[in-house]
Amino acid sequence: MKRWLAVYAVGFFAFLHLPLLTLAVFSFNSSRFTVWEHFSLEWYRAIFRDPELVEATWNSVIVAVAATVIATVVGTMCAYALWKKKSRLLTGTLYLSLVTPEIVTGISLLALFQWMFRWLHWHLGLYTVILAHVAFSIAYVVIVISARLRTLSPSLEEAALDLGANEWGAFFYVILPALGPGIIAAALLALTVSFDDYVITSMVAGVDSQTLPMVIYAMARRGASPVINAISALITVFFGILIVISEQVREA
Amino acid sequence: MKLRTWFVLPTWVWMAGLFAAPFAIILAYSFLTRGDYGGVEQPWTLENYQRLFDRLYLIILLRSFAMASVATVLCLILAFPVALFISQAPRRKNLYLQLVMLPFWTSFLVRTYAWLFLLRDTGLINTFLEKIGIIHSPLPLLYNSGAVLLGLVYGYLPFMVLPIYATLERLDPSLPEAAADLGARPWTTLFRVIVPLSRSGIIAGAVLVFIPCLGTYLTSDLLGGGRTVLVGNLVQSQFTTARDWPFGSAVSMLLMLLVTLLVWGFLRRESEQLS
Amino acid sequence: MNRRYFLLGMTGMAALASCGPSKPRLNVYNWSAYVAPDTISNFEAEFEVKVRYATYESNEEMLAKVVTGNSGWDIVFPTYTRIKPMLDYDLLQPLNHDWLPSLNNLDPRFQKPVWDPELKWNTPYMWFGTGIAYNRSLQPPPTRWADLWDSRLKGRETMLDDPEDMLGACLKKIGLSFNSTDSGELERAKQEAIAQKPLVQAYLNAEVRDQLVSGDVLAAQLWATTAQQAVDAAPQQLAFAYPLEGFPLYCDCAVILRESERTQLAHQFLDYLLRPKVAAASADYTRVATANGAAKAFLPEATRNSPTLYPPPDVLERGEWPHALPRDAQRLRDKIWTEIKSS
User: Cα separation of B215 and A106, whole Å?
Assistant: First the structure.
């Protein structure tokens, strides 16, 4: 059985990465269109000639990291609180935030911000993007961590309390470590959801806050340009390197 | 004050400010009238909801629910073995998890365009199959419901893998061992022991896939060639080309209501079964 | 010890340097790929300002940001049909012609456009029409909208994913007006569209360019600019036709938002865009037709004579400028569009 699982896993990863590989290969295609001409690094050069792109990438990273950290912390705390004492209202609200179509979330947040800013004389900016991203990421984190919490026995916490820990100690030293892999899974999910978001981000981004998906969408909607392929290949390589490094660090 | 009260406060604040308030705005919009060029204006009206009860829109809703259900089930079948594999891996769990997420850190639009390139009549798959002689004319792999399903399943796999992994990871390995000792074959162990124990993860994954699938529009637009309208397309078009925000808000409200009832009913049954 | 002071000193100096007098700013919000790569940077260099330049993909996206009058943008580029609504919402500043000496560079057709005869609110920027892009292997080549209903194109043609254009083509095919608001006429157009649907592979916008070049698609309803890009990539293989029954024309225009406080600088930018060489550079790079008559002299000959971008007068005569439609007609059209797409 274990062998079948491994074989399946290999096939699964291949399926998952197939589009990426195709993109990477064609990022070296000199032609603008998907008919192979000859090998070329032109699209990679084009990336570095474009300051807008570099800035957009930087913005995306800032937003994704900030939103992930905040959402994971807030979401984990919330999942714990809901585990101790259910709240139908809060759970329902979180589910609702998941089901709302992105355009609706985007327009409604824009309307909210614009209405508020009329009184405050503020403008949209990177901070509104972060606020929005946290808002829609919390539900993901709560759901993943709640699933994990349900596998924990409540006696775990009781035991800690019996042994003299206070509530905070029980949470921090007993529950939290038990949640470890769940938190990582939730954070990865939040990071993914945030880094790739286009619709909501484009609605609430300010004048100075273009993100990478916005730039890519603009390019792609006009007919895919291989520059996008090159960007995607670079992103993949970058994250791939990060992953390898983190593995080395962990094993050390 | 108990710890849990402090803990739940930030979420309340965020949800109240950045979800409930916008939600109230959309609710208000659904009772208003469309401005000529987008936006909303007085008078207040029930007209948007009345328009909803047209056969056209109800069919769209039905079709969307069907599509989302099939996508969720397919996702579950595909994701479960991988989640199991990763949870049982002796080391490098995080590596595998990150390998699952890696494709999804590139742009969604770009990945979808990659599928377009693969599935087209002159795309990679058809060309390959023709070259090795299996087919003689291109298979219609694109611009139909199958392509949309493929796009949906592909796009939401991580949302199924991660929660299931999170529960399976806690699985006590002695349990399947005990089952094996008692004479159960691997498949029996899988379905009678492992799957039920990962139930909360499966449900979480199903929720995380089914619900966003309902609201999707880009996948059906790009991979479906704009030939079908799902409820996500309907809402999207109301807020953009049709410039009818109130009607779009009403459709969203109906969608959210239906899903809430569904999820609530389902979860209620779950907790009743557990107790 | 020395190294620490050195680092501290450098940091301090760097901080001071970045706090220097900042240049004046201008915020421009435009369609994507609508200027040449050096247009903005040349403007920044010449006028010693910093331009924040961002792009959007649709009028609605831009309007949603701009409609509250607090968006932060100075200049936007609406399609002409949106200018009247923007005026209704009091979003625009009137133009001061004293600050726009290059206004005369505009093509005579655009000096008194129907949507703003005195050019009080906008300067026309780029224009284009909709037609049929096709593969030359199609003999006889398509020349009418009706040719897109030919069953020889089954599964090899696409229509635009745009209700205005697509329904417009259906209306024109049966000889009706592009701007029709009559429900009977629209119903007939809907029947045409539904009859055509089995032949249509997909409803695509600019994405179809790739498929035309690779040969997946033999004929596509397409905007002239995207068609020109496709023809550029495969000149032997592809061509473009303006249908005989008539076709729509669109024009994107530059306006200054009322919320902008940098009025004079905004005017200078508009004037800069009206310079022949600047307009020519953008028009050539983006493959769109410019509204600037004087710029044509600076276009490379192939572009200037392109029948796709600059059709001869007799062809142009068949084009019409669509109107903004009243609310009920808009709603009817949208319902019909939904019905077509979900049939």
Answer: 13
